[in-house]
Design a protein that fits this description.
Elements: E1 2-5, H1 10-16, E2 38-46, H2 53-73, E3 77-78, E4 88-95, H3 105-112, E5 115-119, H4 142-153, E6 157-159, H5 165-174, E7 180-181, H6 198-206, E8 210-213, H7 217-220, H8 227-239, E9 246-248, H9 267-276, H10 281-300
Parallel strand pairs: 1-2, 2-4, 3-4, 4-5, 5-6, 7-8, 8-9
């Protein structure tokens, strides 16, 4: 099978725990690449809300060095916008726009380091927008609007996961290109503020964006979460016309995952459970691979 994952925190863990991307006991290790015929993995550099701008930049630099050292040595190409012809691809992303500081030139520097996608906030507020945990939802700032335009000019995908509701709609209004929710589920299925409303999902769908199904227990179910809950969220989005919109954004190494999966090696198990429920291989190829590939390639060519 082919697998495309829009979000994990494995790179952050590797840097902060002084491990590499191969010799670890994380949810994701590059040594498991043989599980897939093709594998494209977005590796996020998480920028916590409570660190300084200097600390954020130092963390980012270390993460870039780690990815650039580990990925090529393990047959992974670093994605630079030239398609997914290789068998294994590593894509650098950032989770937390506060790394930009108050200087839009930093966006160009991120692009030079091959950052392909940026989540505008984490859960708190920053100079760009309000996060999901905000106590005063004022939405996207004036600087945030300028940052969104600059991200698009530099061919960096805008990621709306973690945004407050007002920030989401402000961002939709400010963007010219399609955007993504890299790791967000359905709020209609599980009523968590980090999940997407049906209106938000439809807007992403209609703009040509994609969403990544998140494996975090609290975003999947109010009770004990399992693979069945991932499928429930998928089915809801498909019922909203999301056949070309739904992808995967596991949040591996950044969350507590369902009781019946252990990490990347269980992705084929999830795929097989869909098959058992009579999902066609054509549709599953879209969800697990093609929707994300088509989005990235279309984005890069516009």
């Amino acid at each position: 099978m082919r697998h495309f994952d829009l979000h994990c925190d494995t790179l952050y863990r590797a840097v902060t725990e002084n491990r590499d991307l191969l010799s670890n006991d994380f949810h994701i290790s590059l040594r498991h690449k043989a599980c897939f015929d093709k594998w494209a993995q977005c590796f996020a550099v998480w920028i916590p809300d409570d660190i300084t701008l200097f600390e954020a930049r130092e963390l980012f630099k270390k993460a870039v060095r780690r990815l650039n050292a580990d990925a090529p040595q393990n047959s992974f190409e670093i994605y630079s916008g030239k398609g997914f012809d290789g068998r294994y691809t590593a894509i650098l992303t950032v989770e937390g726009g506060r790394i930009i500081g108050d200087d839009l030139q930093n966006i160009r520097r991120l692009a030079e380091d091959k950052v392909k996608m940026l989540t505008l906030t984490w859960n708190g507020d920053n100079q760009i927008a309000c996060g999901a945990d905000t106590e005063n939802d004022t939405g996207l700032t004036d600087f945030g609007r300028a940052a969104v335009r600059e991200l698009e000019r530099n061919n960096i995908i805008v990621d709306v996961s973690h945004l407050s509701d007002k920030s989401f709609f402000d961002t939709a209004e400010a963007t010219q290109k399609p955007f993504v929710a890299s790791h967000s589920n359905s709020r209609a299925v599980c009523s968590h503020r980090r999940n997407l409303t049906d209106e938000q999902f439809k807007l992403i769908r209609d703009r040509g964006g994609i969403i990544g199904l998140n494996f975090y227990r609290e975003f999947l179910s109010c009770g004990k979460a399992g693979i069945k809950d991932i499928i429930k969220h998928c089915e809801h989005f498909l019922a909203l016309g999301g056949e070309n919109t739904v992808a995967l954004g596991s949040d591996f190494d950044g969350c507590e995952i369902p009781h019946d999966i252990c990490g990347i090696t269980d992705v084929p198990k999830i795929y097989n459970e869909f098959l058992r429920l009579n999902y066609s291989e054509t549709l599953l190829n879209k969800i697990f691979w093609l929707n994300a590939v088509n989005f990235f390639e279309t984005f890069d060519n516009n």
